[in-house]
């Protein structure tokens, strides 16, 4: 990688990180390019150069969040073991919720508002990806690798359960009396969620977990 390319990637990364914080704190309408530039410690023209507008930057933040969530499941095929894939997918999503709850809340708020900026993407690219994942689950069911059930509802359940720990962080803190979940707490949550979902699929949690 050239020095110029490395510098470009560093600048873009700083912009995206600052943008996620600002959008998380203030929402799309409340955040400004100047606020983002100040947080990134970069001139505002740098943001305009790379992203052209606040809307484009916001869409990129949302896209990165969605891609990071589903990266592991994206690689699953009909040849894989469903228990291993689903267990890893659930645990990865939970870790992301614990580590970066702000990301989940940004995405959730966009969808709650009717997905004004990513609606078209949801109906096209994301829908195509989603149907391909449903097809993998159904191939496992057809092969007798897991219980036959509604694959669409299963994916929705995994998303909802794992993202709950980010979107409702304040409620969880109030009810558990813990401001931060310890590693043992997170492990317990992961084990419990995986046990419940996998058993519902007629699967057992991998012994290595």
Automatic annotation (TrEMBL):
DNA-binding region in chain numbering: 32-51
Biological-process GO terms, alphabetical: negative regulation of DNA-templated transcription
Keyword DNA-binding applies: yes
Domain HTH tetR-type residue range list: 9-69
Taxonomy, superkingdom: Bacteria
Single GO molecular function: DNA binding
Entry keyword set: DNA-binding
This protein's record includes keyword DNA-binding: yes
Pfam families: TetR_C_3, TetR_N
Coiled-coil ranges (or none): none
Record-given protein name: TetR family transcriptional regulator
């Amino acid at each position: 990688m050239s020095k110029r390319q490395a510098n470009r990637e560093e600048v873009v990364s700083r912009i995206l990180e600052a943008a996620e914080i600002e959008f998380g704190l203030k929402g799309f309408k409340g955040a400004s390019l100047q606020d983002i530039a100040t947080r990134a410690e970069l001139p505002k023209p740098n943001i305009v150069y790379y992203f052209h507008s606040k809307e484009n930057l916001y869409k990129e933040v949302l896209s990165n969040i969605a891609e990071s969530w589903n990266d592991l499941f994206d690689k699953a095929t009909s040849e894989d073991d469903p228990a291993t894939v689903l267990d890893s997918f659930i645990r990865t999503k939970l870790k992301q919720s614990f580590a970066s709850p702000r990301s989940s809340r940004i995405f959730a708020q966009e969808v709650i508002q009717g997905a004004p900026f990513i609606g078209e993407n949801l109906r096209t690219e994301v829908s195509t990806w989603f149907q391909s994942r449903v097809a993998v689950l159904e191939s496992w069911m057809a092969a007798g690798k897991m219980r036959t059930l509604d694959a669409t509802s299963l994916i929705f359940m995994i998303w909802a359960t794992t993202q709950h720990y980010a979107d409702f962080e304040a409620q969880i803190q109030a009810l558990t009396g813990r401001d931060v979940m310890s590693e043992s707490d997170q492990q317990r949550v992961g084990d419990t969620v995986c046990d419940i979902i996998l058993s519902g699929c007629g699967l057992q949690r991998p012994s290595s977990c």
